[in-house]
Write a structure and sequence with these properties.
The complex is a heterodimer of chains A (about 325) and B (about 350).
Chain A lengths: L2 E6 L7 E8 L2 E6 L2 E6 L14 E4 L5 E4 L2 H7 L7 H6 L2 H33 L2 H17 L3 E2 L4 H12 L13 E5 L7 E3 L5 E4 H6 L3 H16 L2 H20 L4 H12 L4 H17 L5 H14 L3 H5 L14 H9 L2
Chain B lengths: L3 E5 L1 E2 L3 H17 L5 H14 L1 E3 L2 E5 L3 H24 L1 H28 L1 E3 L2 E5 L3 H17 L5 H14 L1 E3 L2 E5 L3 H31 L9 H35 L1 E3 L2 E5 L3 H17 L5 H14 L1 E6 L16 H8 L7
Antiparallel strand pairs in B: 1-11, 2-3, 3-4, 4-5, 5-6, 6-7, 7-8, 8-9, 9-10, 10-11
The chains are: A alpha+beta (about 325), B alpha+beta (about 350).
The complex binds zinc ion.
């Protein structure tokens, strides 16, 4: 069965209409002003790609384009498909690929990414962490945070008390503990990715005694010891990059929204770990674990009225106070 | 003149067909930890090029996946280094970014060279012969000047960019020619500014009407309310009217003034058509969590390609192969990674 094709010699743009036929292992090409006989082994015949024209590539740069895909496949059955084009042509494989892609993406997101983030965070040298927090303080002090209104001796007393406490195994002291005011964020405390802890004035005001402040700081030290903030930040940047790459062609504006949704708060597990660390640390130092539970309750009460206002700040702070599972955490602390 | 004939560009790709190719290749890229993505890129380009036909022949893409993989690895390492450094030390990140911006024209020249040298039509390759020095003038200096003049010179810069890329592109041994004055560019933007002004007036009147209608919650300051509604109106208006208008007019302007030997091009993209497609694509991509992307790519490509015509003078047979030079993919992959692009 001869097949119609168009032929280009690779030297000139002239279009030759030709007929293709087979003579044993030799391809015969005949048409207006051209006639070629070429052994099949000297030709390159790329596998099909969707419904695009089939091609025959000659060693000298000439080429044939064949619109009649079926006729061509009938003439040269062994060049009809490759494993790849077979998969690309089948809805079954496409759905399997879709499913596998979703599963792999979920696995990478749920396990791969947290694992990699922990491995990287654990290996970061201290000077990088210190440097980073300096940058964070520089920008936070210009935007969200104001100088503290707390009396210097109160701050010193809190700092010294914390310094004198012993740590549970694996515990790490924060690089810096800084006191700041922030009308926008309310009563809160949070750990920065580099391992510094920021305590807001309103939190100290909210506490009935130093032990309650210490309890919250112990919880933050739990985050610091395991570099939770750093892990969270690494994960968020990888997701941000992936999103920007994936959506990039459509609009970079769009990329920002899903990233914000995915990074959000510390996971429940991380909060539980930090709570457990705090409970250990309080017990070792003879402070009742209930101090943290009391404080959680107060923090939650203080944040409820303006929950929407704090949502803006939620991207960077510890959600300690606005965490949805406060009740559950309090219960588990009471049990310790 | 009697020998001139319209040859419409055709695009024969289909959404469902491309979706299967896309998802299989995405999956393979993930399974191979990104290595296969170079092969996937070649396959994607080949799919789009081979489905683009004019005057009884299709285009083709010849990029070598191994070369692209090497370029991709270099670009990825640079980008990773940049992201990590800027995460930990924003000042150093800014410095690196400035360096990359400085290298941008150099990268773009390499990118254009790679892309065009690997594009063929009727078994003849395209080529890009632009010099790097000229690229710095046209792709960096002019945009910089337009930035310093608060955009006043932006139409001028756009004309220089288009002239530089077109005049230095060739099919076979014949160069493309781009001939249009800056005036045409300013005319498009003048019209765009008029649309912006009309849009502003409309948004403001609607805002005032709404603010006085009593439908709005009490207790909100009137000026703030008007400002917010008018601002939203402007944002929507620019996306819906101004952006498609400028995009459509620019594509037409550039193609209608491009010639290749005695052959000319005629583009008749419409702002309304572009708007419908872009808006539809955006919404569907969002609602399908991105899985509409391959269909969206096909729709946009079909619209752009099918609104382009070749006004052929006599036949296309006289073109002969031109000189080919060596190219590498690093420039293209870097430019891709940092999202630089020159529209062709
Ligand atoms: Zn916490």
């Amino acid at each position: 069965m001869p097949v119609t094709a168009v032929y280009f010699d690779g030297q000139q743009a002239r279009r030759h209409e030709v007929m293709l036929s087979l003579d044993g292992d030799v391809l015969l090409l005949q048409g207006d002003a051209v006639e070629r006989r070429v052994s099949l082994s000297a030709l390159k015949i790329p596998p099909p790609l969707g419904n695009t024209p089939r091609l025959i590539l000659f060693a000298d740069g000439a080429r044939c384009e064949i619109a009649d895909n079926q006729g061509f496949a009938a003439m040269l059955p062994h060049a009809a498909a490759s494993w790849l084009s077979g998969m690309e042509n089948s809805w079954l494989y496409a759905m399997a690929a879709l499913l596998l892609t979703l599963v792999l993406a979920a696995v990478a997101y749920l396990w791969g990414l947290p694992y990699a983030a922990r491995e990287v965070a654990d290996r970061l040298p201290d000077y990088v962490l210190v440097q980073m927090d300096n940058q964070f303080f520089a920008s936070l002090d210009q935007t969200l945070l104001k100088p503290t209104a707390l009396a210097p001796d109160r701050r010193q007393a809190l700092g010294e008390r914390l310094q004198g406490m012993s740590l549970p195994p694996g515990g790490v002291r924060p690089n810096r503990i800084e006191f700041r005011g922030s009308p926008g964020l309310g009563a809160n405390a949070f750990a920065l990715p580099g391992g510094s802890v920021v305590v807001l004035d309103q939190l100290v005001d909210l506490a009935d005694n130093d032990e309650e402040v210490i309890a919250v700081l112990a919880h933050e030290m739990g985050h610091v010891s395991q570099r939770h903030a750093m892990r969270q930040m690494l994960q968020a940047s990888v997701i941000g990059l992936a999103m920007a790459w994936y959506i990039g062609d459509v609009s970079s504006l769009l990329a920002a929204a899903p990233t914000a949704l995915l990074q959000t708060r510390y996971s429940r597990d991380l909060e539980r770990t930090a709570d457990a660390f705090a409970a250990d640390m309080l017990r070792i130092n003879g402070i009742p674990v209930s101090r943290l539970a009391d404080m959680l309750r107060k923090l939650e009460a203080s944040h409820r009225p303006d929950a929407t206002k704090t949502e803006k700040a939620e991207l960077m702070i510890d959600y300690l106070s606005t965490h949805p599972n406060t009740e559950e955490r309090i219960k588990s602390l009471r049990g310790r | 003149m009697t020998d001139r004939q319209y040859q419409q560009f055709h695009f024969t790709g289909r959404g469902g067909e491309y979706f299967r190719i896309w998802i299989v290749n995405v999956c393979l890229s993930i399974v191979t930890l990104g290595i296969y993505s170079a092969w996937a890129k070649v396959r994607r380009n080949q799919y789009f090029y081979r489905h683009t036909l004019v005057a009884g022949a299709s285009f083709d893409y010849h990029g070598d996946p191994k070369v692209i993989l090497k370029g991709r690895a270099i670009a990825f390492l640079m980008f990773a280094a940049y992201s990590v450094v800027s995460q930990f030390n924003p000042a150093a990140g800014v410095a690196i970014f400035a360096l990359i911006m400085l290298a941008m024209p150099w990268l773009l020249v390499r990118s254009l060279r790679f892309r065009l040298h690997n594009t063929s039509y009727r078994a003849l390759r395209f080529a890009f012969h632009g010099e790097t020095g000229q690229a710095y003038v046209n792709l960096l200096l002019w945009p910089l000047l337009s930035f310093l003049t608060l955009g006043l010179l932006w139409p001028m810069a756009q004309q220089r960019i288009a002239r530089y890329t077109r005049d230095n592109s060739a099919y076979g041994d014949v160069s493309f020619r781009f001939e249009v004055g800056v005036g045409e560019y300013y005319r498009v933007y003048l019209m765009a500014i008029l649309i912006v002004i009309a849009n502003f007036a409309a948004a403001l009147s609607v805002a005032i009407l709404l603010a006085d209608s009593g439908l709005m919650p009490a207790g909100v300051e009137r000026t703030a309310l008007i400002g917010a509604i008018a601002g939203l109106g402007m944002y929507v208006g620019i996306f819906v009217f101004v952006y498609p208008y400028v995009a459509a007019r620019m594509q037409n302007l550039v193609w209608n003034n491009t010639s290749l030997a005695d052959h000319r091009f005629v583009a008749n993209v419409k702002a309304s058509g572009l708007l419908v497609i872009m808006l539809g694509n955006l919404l569907l991509i969002v609602f399908t969590l991105g899985f509409y992307k391959p269909f969206a790519d096909i729709r946009l490509a079909r619209y752009r390609i099918e609104h382009l015509n070749l006004l052929a003078y006599d036949s296309l047979d006289q073109f002969v192969a031109g000189m080919q030079s060596r190219t590498s993919a690093a420039g293209e992959e870097m430019a891709d990674m940092f999202d630089f692009d020159v529209a062709l």
